[in-house]
Amino acid sequence: MIRFACLAGAAVLVATTALAQQADQPVLTGKRAFGDWKADRPGVRRLIKPQDLPAPYLTRSSSNGAGIADRPEGVKPLVPPGFSIELVASGIDNPRVVRAAPNGDLFVADSKANQIRVYRLAEGGAKPAEQAIFAEGLTRPYGIAFYPPGDRPQWVYVANSNSVMRFAYRDGDLKAQGKLETIVQDIPSSHHWTRDIAFSPDGKTLYLSVGSGSNIAEDVGAEPEGGLERWATSAPLGAIWGSEEGRADVLAFDPDGRNRRSFATGLRNCSGMTVQPQTGGLWCVVNERDGLGDNVPFEYATTVKDGAFYGWPWYYIGANEDPRHAGARPDLAGKVTVPDVLMQAHSAPLNIAFYEGKSFPAEYRGDAFVALHGSWNRGVRTGYKVVRLKFEDGKPTGEYEDFATGFVISDDDVWGRPVGVTVAKDGALILTEDGNGTIWRVTYGDGRS
User: What confidence score (pLDDT) does residue 11 get?
Assistant: First the structure.
């Protein structure tokens, strides 16, 4: 696409430098943790706390989108020592969420092509033995979930931008059989369109994330019809009205789509959800708002608690009031749930997966991987990597570590934008990125999981 020879040389230089660095360095904290892509490499650790949050407008808001270059020949993402990464597939239009079926098949949402793809990898390898289009004619599909949870699902659920559908499924199906069924309708699809889905461990609840229809609800008006006091006493805590009603939420349903209810509010764009195996708790990764400066507010990953309010649009990272809504909701100031893991501002986390495999070193079990799509509203570029969230006894430490980097070529250009993460049946980690439309498989040791 652009400046191929120069870009390839730059990428090799970045890779060489990164591999030469030691990963066992002190945890970056405070302002040192904010950084940019030049400080990223596997093993770099960060711990960002709520008190590290700068005041808004210390830097001006930047429009700094990345140019997308062809992946330089021979270049792979960088992973920690002892790990290997191999290309599974390339040339995909828009690979987003990836989920592993119980039998090991990889289901990938190709959102722009309106398809769900399936890849069956050769045993112990990265190359597909079979691949197929499982379903097509969808509407910007994103989230994928198998139901009921466990080894013998009977349905594949797919979250379109405006609905949730399901397909009858038998173990090993490479193509949807029978007629699709619409489970949830009338989901608003403008602006943030990435709808993720997950099931509670007991299979009784379907969770659906619905991002906001704007940056900070600029057009909904100061008060809902009937007045703010009436709204606050009848609506879920922190819920917003007008064109944003039912948005910036995690919604809950019965598996057949009935009994719609609000589960949590104030999550500007929960673009990735999963259930933590150790606790059964729901987790979200959230894209926070833009326009307040390079490092405000932090992105985050968090447990999602029933009935909790996470701040949007009036507050962020606890009771920090958005100056663009000054004085609008003082009643909510002490009722904002602070997220569990804070990450570099504008990194754009898109998906999360807990590692319960056995092929990585034992210390990885119970940790989570998050794909960071990369910044555009930041003067210095950040994100464009996969990070590892650290847990102890099922609880987040707040620390995270760069795991897969090397997608950025220069201050201006990137070749990869990570989106999806999942753990394969054999314990390998699967990554998707939609810059060059590729899927990758990460293994430990000799590359055979």
Answer: 40
The CATH number given to whatever domain includes residue 314 is 2.120.10.30
- Tell me, what's the pLDDT at 10? 43
Beta strands in 23-94 (DSSP E): 28-29, 45-47, 67-68, 83-89
- Predicted local distance difference test score (pLDDT) of residue 446: 66
**Residue 198 resides in a domain:** yes
Is pLDDT of 225 > 50?
A: yes
The DSSP string of 417-430 is -EEEEEE-TTS-EE
Residues near 381 by Cβ (< 8 Å), separated by ≥ 6?
Answer: 36, 37, 64, 66, 374, 375, 408, 411, 414
Apex CA 48: angle with CA 76 and CA 37, to 5°? 30
Q: 306 in a domain, yes or no?
A: yes
Distance CA 41, CA 19 (A): 8
Structure tokens at 432: 């998707």
- pLDDT, residue 21, reads 44
Range of weakest confidence among 105-119, 177-191, 334-348, 354-368: 177-191
- pLDDT over 70 (residue 9): no
* 401 contacts 45 by C-beta, under 8 angstroms: yes
pTM for the whole structure: 0.94
Domain residue limits at 437: 4-444
Say how many domains are in the chain.
1
Whether 449 is covered by a domain: the verdict is no
154 within domain boundaries = yes
Please answer whether residues 126 and 441 qualify as being in contact, where contact means their C-beta atoms are separated by less than 8 angstroms.
Answer: yes
